[in-house]
């Protein structure tokens, strides 16, 4: 039987499009948690429910570039 964990894990690439200036500290911390700290910077992360929740929290500051 094939195990779900076999093979490549799904990833998602996000790009920061907005500035965290004049945003709540919680949103700034979420961007840092996603590995972003400058506009146009990209970060590739595992596609987990936790990461998707973080992206949703700062959806107005990031965009999903690629889902693999």
Automatic annotation (TrEMBL):
InterPro entries: Ribo_uL30_ferredoxin-like_sf, Ribosomal_uL30_bac-type, Ribosomal_uL30_ferredoxin-like. Keywords: Ribonucleoprotein, Ribosomal protein. One of its GO terms (cellular component) is ribosome. It comes from the Bacteria. Transmembrane segments: none annotated. Residues 1-25 are annotated as: Disordered. Residues 13-62 form the Large ribosomal subunit protein uL30-like ferredoxin-like fold domain. Pfam families: Ribosomal_L30 (PF00327). SUPFAM superfamilies: Ribosomal protein L30p/L7e. Gene3D superfamilies: Ribosomal protein L30, ferredoxin-like fold domain. Part of the 50S ribosomal subunit. Belongs to the universal ribosomal protein uL30 family. PANTHER family: LARGE RIBOSOMAL SUBUNIT PROTEIN UL30M (PTHR15892:SF2), MITOCHONDRIAL RIBOSOMAL PROTEIN L30 (PTHR15892). This is Large ribosomal subunit protein uL30. It comes from Kaistia terrae.
